[in-house]
Amino acid sequence: MDIRLLSVIISASVAILIAVLNHFIITPYKENRSRKREQLKNLYAPLYGIINVRTKLVIGFSMRKKKLMLGNVDDKTYQTEEYMEQFILERAGYASHKLLDVWIEYTSQFGDYDKETTERFVVTIVREYNQLKKDLNLPYNPEELRTGIPESIKEYRKLKS
User: Fold this and answer.
1) What whole-number distance in Å separates Cα of residue 68 and Cα of residue 116?
2) Residues 57-83: pLDDT tens digits?
3) For a designed S-S bond to 129, which of 44, 138, 152, 155 qualifies (C-beta 3.0 to 4.6 A apart)?
4) How far apart are CA 161 and CA 48, in angstroms?
5) CA dist 3 to 9, 11, 12, 16, 50, Å?
6) Rounded distance, CA 102 to CA 127, Å?
């Protein structure tokens, strides 16, 4: 076989291999990381902050009642239940199915909020926030990832044990 023909075959094979790797492995990996980065930036990081503020507002009351609760401050819009619900509704495309399920369960309650439902809602947000950070090789809190209880109310973890 001619050396020129052999070099053409090898070059073409390498080009096809690179194209296949790029199309089926590299591009999907980059798109997945980009999607996770967008989820973190547009939904989970701000929502994590809102949850921390709202739980911190009523930590004393939560500890006395042994019930995880979310507080409200009417004169600060970002600390209200309505703001959080609107925030999630507007960014639902970034949410996981699990978050949407627990959010629907949480928002469809009437009267006093059920302890387990509120806890599932908070735990889901905190765990998914930390999981996204871990997946993106960003600093995350392993204890929050494990328990789902925010560091701002870590005292509540002792009640759960």
Assistant:
1) 8
2) 888 877 887 888 888 877 788 788 899
3) 44
4) 23
5) 10, 12, 14, 20, 67
6) 13
